Amino acid sequence: MASPKTSRKESLEVKYYLIGYNFVQTIGWSIIFYKLIFYYLSPGTKTLYDTVRCSLDIFQNAAVLEVVHAATGMVKSSPIMTAFQVASRVVVVCGVLMATNAAREGLGLPLALLAWSITEIIRYSNYFFNLIGSVPYFLKYLRYTTFIVLYPIGVTGELLCIFKAQNEVGQRQLYSMKMPNNYNFIFNYQHLLWFLMLLYIPLFPQLYLYMFGQRKKALGKQKSN
């Protein structure tokens, strides 16, 4: 059994790590938001995807650590809920945007980037201030209010990206395996993307209503105080 002194030291190390993680993520998503806005204010020769690609790959994939944080008890979050939220974004970034050109065109990408970046700047800022002592009320209010508009926008952007990608995936047979093969296994990536789009039908309302419940707890408690 660890001594109280050792436990306190480990607790402080975890706290400092989480402070650093949330600070870096706040900066990272601020950079992505800046690049998104700057792209439309001063269009150049690069595409939107090429403009944000490096930052998006780094900071979105870094969010996989949040599943570890939840699973190890570093934060009080559901590992399953966290895993789904992170996985849906990682699939779009790595399995759709990296893999196809079609997903990078149209409204899907800018909608997703707009919703993701604003949401994450607010979310990580909340976590950062909570860890160092107190969260300004306006930031807490934004955390539990902006999702009402941003969540549907983000989901719409994600679905548009996946929908545009699935046609190209089908035509090129990306990441798919046909019989016969040495593994005696068949896999169709286009069908998987269809399945993922269908999953949004039951899961989006649940997560959306869950956030309303969290909003009532967080802001209702503040009002009662």
Architecture overview:
The protein has 225 residues and is mostly helical. The chain has one domain (9-224). Helices cover 76% and strands 0% of the residues. It is built from eight helices and no strands. The longest helix has 38 residues, at 4-41. It is globular, with a radius of gyration of 20 Å. The protein starts with a helix and ends with a helix. Pathway: Lipid metabolism; fatty acid biosynthesis. GO terms for molecular function: very-long-chain (3R)-3-hydroxyacyl-CoA dehydratase activity. Keywords: Endoplasmic reticulum, Fatty acid biosynthesis, Fatty acid metabolism, Lipid biosynthesis, Lipid metabolism, Lyase, Membrane, Transmembrane, Transmembrane helix.
